[in-house]
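Question:
When you can, review this sequence-structure pair and walk me through the tokens.
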Amino acid sequence: RFHHLAWQTFAMGGPAGRVSPEDLETVPTAELLSELKRRHQLLSRTPANVAVLGPPCVGKHTQADALRRAFGVCRISAKELMSASSSDEEAVRTLGTLLQRNECRRGFVLDGFPTTVAQAARLDEELAKQKKTLDAAIFLDAPEDVLVERCQGRLLHEASGRLYHDAHRIPLEKGVDDFTGNPLVRPPFEESKFKAQVERYQKDSKLLRQFFSKRHVREVDATKTIDQVSAACLEPIGPRESE
């Protein structure tokens, strides 16, 4: 497990972007070469600004993180924005500040944001101030029974936000985080709350699709394997000039 922790530190750039030689020595050579190859490939990829949207438990976090790694961009979640804000205006203002971070220089992927047309309009305004645009909106979709199964099987490492699943992303050791060995928790599932969230998403997403209709919108079947969904999510990211 120690080499997993060191590897995560390396892959994420380490504290303040630095990794100790001792930590790197614990990472297998094959994994180091694979990560270096990934980073080299990023240099030939055009930066991208993307929103990954969908109902609860459809896999937004997983696919947003896959896009983050594929394009070398930053990931910003709706939870991160809304938990520290009391209004859409404050959430978008927080987003504008986060986009100034160095890790966002190549672009960004929004995980579950915006959720409404009002948020989308404010997002456009903020991006325009920074001379940026949203390149694509990716809508993940799955039947309600699939969403319920995914919600009920989720496991969470609270400190990092890493997600696991009883069937789809099984931890190396039952009930513990792969990198730290800390115990995983099962987020509570309330069926009535879940159904209300799905109903609200279905209503709001119709309006969002109309709002984004003049841009690159991609509908992705999220019932497939994680890798298949990731491949489909990568398809709509068209070329644009670097900022």
Summary: Strands lie at 48-53, 74-77, 107-111, 136-141, 154-157, 162-165, 216-221. The radius of gyration is 18 Å. Residues 12-17, 239-243 have pLDDT under 50 and may be disordered.
